[in-house]
């Protein structure tokens, strides 16, 4: 799945990460103080049901040396309105956050969450790419795979040597607006892919947002279909399943979405892992789209 050493840009397996962390530990006199070492590990666990649960889980035990990234505080700007439940942070704020974590352009970043990467490891992966940082990968199988392999966790507080704000800005051309989605509604299906579970897409249930249903013409690809036993399916298998969904559209013409722009990043990761590159993200996603009652809604 991965090579044994960085750079990693989509997925990294437990064995490869464990090997490089062990090598780093032998080179750093104080393993608790993270400078610009080869790898920065980030814990992005989050629960929509309990916004404090991820941070509490991190405090109870995390991959040695990992820092915590909070979906609401670090990977979103909840003060923005009209852009769904997890609006994007501003470039300047996110650049300062990366500096606070000691992440510089040369840093290899590995992000994990509790298991499959959808909540919210892939979101941090995408934000880093959006600001121009390509050396970032999601730990395949997350903390569950790490522990299943017998790797250690620690509860100790991790010190970090801060860096300057990251020298980059979001490439907003990779972020699709609601206006663009509206303008493209007449196009043939395959350009817009919705990563939500089927029952939410069909409008049978809606536990979070104002209206149930989906953007007219969107194709449903529940993120669980990209997984097997908590791991991403093999690249060739994913490619065979994902490519037909695009219909007449090239990958660079396609857009991914979900409920609030978080699990859409996991679908983007699946496409990238499959060698289908260039898709963009409708960051407002369903929560943003459905907040305006003038926009059309489809069910079924």
Name the overall outline: globular
Strand fraction band?
A: 5-15%
CATH homologous superfamily label of the largest domain: Rhodanese-like domain
Strand order of the largest sheet: 1-6-5-3-4
Based on the structure given, which CATH architecture of the largest domain is correct?
A: 3-Layer(aba) Sandwich
Structural description of this entry:
The chain is an alpha/beta fold and 300 residues long. The protein has two domains: 11-170, Oxidized Rhodanese, domain 1 (3-Layer(aba) Sandwich), CATH 3.40.250.10; 173-289, Oxidized Rhodanese, domain 1 (3-Layer(aba) Sandwich), CATH 3.40.250. Helix content is 28%, strand content 13%. It is built from ten helices and 14 strands. The chain has a five-stranded parallel beta sheet, sandwiched between helices. It is globular, with a radius of gyration of 19 Å. Mean pLDDT is 94; it is low at 28-36.
Identify the notable features of this structure and list them briefly.
single chain; 300 residues; alpha/beta; Oxidized Rhodanese, domain 1; 2 domains; five-stranded parallel β-sheet; 14 strands; 28% helix; globular
Topology summary:
Blueprint: E1 11-12, H1 14-27, E2 33-34, E3 39-43, H2 53-60, E4 67-68, H3 91-100, E5 108-112, H4 121-130, E6 136-139, H5 142-148, E7 159-160, E8 175-176, H6 178-183, E9 192-194, H7 198-201, E10 219-220, E11 227-228, E12 231-232, H8 235-242, E13 255-257, H9 263-273, E14 280-282, H10 285-289
Outline of this structure?
The protein is an alpha/beta fold. Helices cover 28% and strands 13% of the residues.
